[in-house]
From TrEMBL:
Protein name, UniProt field: Fructose 1,6-bisphosphatase
Source lineage: Bacteria, Pseudomonadati, Bacteroidota, Flavobacteriia, Flavobacteriales
Organism whose genome encodes this protein: Tenacibaculum maritimum NCIMB 2154
Family annotation (CDD domains): terB_like
Gene3D superfamilies in the cross-refs: TerB-like
Length: 144
């Protein structure tokens, strides 16, 4: 196996874990809404999730661990995608927020600041901020 194969397989594993986290949030309320399904399809396509992987993750997302990227910007982007899923059905439940906070900790956001980071993330997505603005605002809330 070449170095590039090792890198790409590691990246794909991180992407599978990220997609599974998004699926967990979509399934928190027991159903996947039309908006959530559309977002899942778009994210799966962007992350090159194959159909068999997609089905396996939908069936049991807990089998796929969170493998956070090293880059802070990549972790913020993952938080952005997770937050978009939380708000995909136009409502944010308490159970979705609790799961989002757990996943944010898994993405290496500090435990003592994760509530503030997640609250700001929801605020930004609700107000239609795109990734660039989201990234800047999260960095202001979560100074490292």
């Amino acid at each position: 196996m070449s170095i590039s194969d090792l890198y790409s397989s590691g990246k794909h594993k991180r992407d599978l874990g990220h997609f599974a986290s998004i699926v967990k949030i979509a399934k928190t309320d027991g159903t996947i809404s039309e908006g959530e399904q559309e977002l899942l399809n778009n994210v799966a396509k962007r992350l090159n999730i194959h159909e068999n992987e997609y089905k396996e993750i939908l069936e049991d997302p807990a089998k796929f661990p969170i493998n956070p990227p090293v880059s802070y910007d990549d972790r913020i982007e993952r938080l952005y995608r997770l937050t978009k899923m939380v708000f995909a059905d136009k409502e944010v439940t308490e159970s979705e927020m609790l799961l989002m906070r757990k996943i944010a900790i898994g993405l290496s956001f500090p435990t003592e600041n994760v509530e503030k980071v997640c609250d700001e993330a929801i605020h930004l997505v609700v107000n239609g901020n795109e990734l660039e603005e989201f990234n800047s605002a999260i960095k202001k809330v979560n100074t490292i």
